[in-house]
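Lab notebook, page 48
Experiment: co-folding of the full assembly
Goal: obtain a model of how the components sit together before planning crosslinking
Operator: M.T.
Materials (sequences as entered):
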Amino acid sequence: MTGVNNILIVGVGGQGTILASRILAEVAIAGGYQVKISEIHGMSQRGGSVMTQLRFADEVFSPVIEPSTADILLSFEMLEALRALPYLKEGGELIVSKQELLPMPVITGTAQYPADIAERLLSVVPDAQIVDALSLAKKAGTVKAVNVVLLGMLSRHLPFDENSWLQAIRKCVKPKTVEINLKAFALGRG
Amino acid sequence: MKRFLMGNQAIALGAINAGVNLVSGYPGTPSSEILETVAANNPGDIYVEWSANEKAAMEVAAGASYAGARVMVTMKQVGLSVAADALLSLAYVGIKGGFVVVVADDPGPISSQTEQDSRCFGVFAKLPVFDPSSPAEAYLMIEDAFLLSEKYQIPVIFRPTTRICHACADLDHNDIRTTNKPSGFIKDSKWVIFPKRAYEGHLHLASVSKQIAADFSCYGYNSIQGNGRLTIAASGIAYQYCREALDLLGQPQIKLAKIATPTPFPEQFALSFLQNTDAVICMEELDPVIEKELLQVVGKHNLPIKVYGKLTGNLPEAGEYSVETVSAALADILGIELPKNEMPQLPDLPNRPPVLCAACPHRASFYLVKKACAGQDAVFSGDIGCYTLGNAAPLSMVDTCLCMGAGITVAQGLQKINPETLHFAFIGDSTFFASGLTGTVNAAYNQTKIIIVVLDNNTTAMTGHQPHPGTGQTMMGEISDKISIEKTLYALGINSVEVCNPLDCDRTMAAIKRAIAFPSASALIMRSPCAVKIKQFTPAKINTDKCSGCAYCIEELGCPALTKQNGIITIDQEHCKGCMLCTQICPCGAIEKVITKEE
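Observation: model returned without errors.
Model output:
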């Protein structure tokens, strides 16, 4: 069971991390890998921090990613990227949507949203990609497609051909959103 | 065919293939998707229902099983406490059609109020327990559970945990289905529990426990791999963590035994893996069930074997395990150093707790009750559901939360000791039907002045919008007569019942004040649909000419659509669903409905 690929997807409940992980799972399965996902449902999804963990390899035992072992950390939000940073392994890759969503303690003034997240991320991961996924999603037609834009960016770091990504998107998203999501993927992939 | 399935889906499809005839349950994370998946894949001949609560589900299934049906009951771990009365008696009475209780445990806990270990319910009820270690194993084992139940005519507990239920994996799925045609109910004195019958049932249980332990000793999912003088006995997801930890440690000479059936304990199997062993390390989440069994085996057979686990302080007694947990314990016992990972130092980051959604009508209910009680001593008892989130600032409206239905009854106890204080009990519509009825009768009959606030959003929101008796829908896709909450409250003896729309602030405020003035137990039904269900809406916006920037809206409501940046209040137009609560409470009248062209 050596050489497990660990992709950690983090964000805020409601941002579509679970759908993103399902599309990635389809792609990895089509690539001949065993895939395991661990996700959290229920209370935590109500706007709280969410973490979806995806692992693929010839054989995967645990569905859970341990600290310091994520090959890629894909974050839908700046603060959540920083929170999850201890999961990224040394030399791992970091892709972050530069969106900032204020948590309730910040909104009500009992806590401060850190001002230096980008610097902190870059100090640990100098080649981190901090991207404006939201604008690309808007360009594709809906802010909701931000998850698929980020998958497009992620796709450049994984050894799967573009066609299998497109097939997986067609399979996983609602039929009437296929076109928008394909466009979002293309914009993300660049 | 390979399919990528969530553990809960795998259990459901396995049960369909095993010929289940009836599935009942009550929603609860992490179990809810099991019953939903059966309903979504119903070949047409399976009866599926969300029951009013877990006890009802257990008893409906008991009746069907008496008539020869294969039945599955689904719930989360705390649900088994509700259904325990039925299950413990059913263990004595016995069953006819295969009877599988799927109870999902939640180490962590991630979405629960306890970390109770349902394997202990198996020990307590003297019923066998299956403990799968992966979605694929759960898929295959569920059929074995039905067969074992029928072989010994007793209910069987099937106990996945969150990391099985909500893990997804690719597994081989086939559509080969066993069919079971129920024989129909045959009258027999054995279905009536009397003390003598209970005694016979107890003897039967004790006797079959020995036979099942022998069966389990030969059960294929109880397995041994590797060799060494040191043995790991692992169960559930901890088994997968151990496999991975052994890889990380470079496959040391260690035997790994997986125990898929913790009770009745497969003693012969244990004796086989304890051969040529100096020490055994128990890796199991929650309670030391296997550890205590192994201590008994070692004592009974005078084996010179050291048993490590929670009781020796080598492993934690609470919380989830991980690869890190088991590798640290292993390294410590082996006396080896684990490589340390350098972790980036992070500052204290603001938490991001879950919050009530934008436009959630519960926010309005909490806000208005709070305002109506201003200047008075008041205690707000809460309950289990999305509305437990009302405890967070700035609402801070949940002073107690114990278990399903307890808000109404805890408020009564508080009132008896603190009668000068106002006592509110908030309860959701689904929770009201599940566990609130008895407490309501109790309040009315014992003339306790509490104010019951039923937060009626017409769904079971937190667990994923399941129907309940107040919604008028069933899991068979039929329309049923809704059970009226107001009529129910009257029938249970509450003489003051008012229905309000909490998003209509003035009228609701007047109703709350009338309820406060009512001399005995009263009820308010705050009726407004769950915000997640609202698909068409017009957001609100700030009129910047009128807004003073006072942030009253933000500081009072804690709505995720309202933010203040650089001193300017804004409403996130993607988030706001136009509930118009903020427009009604803004001291400056600065929040307005966005007028669309059609209007």
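Interpretation: The radius of gyration of chain A is 16 Å.
Next step: discuss with group before ordering constructs.
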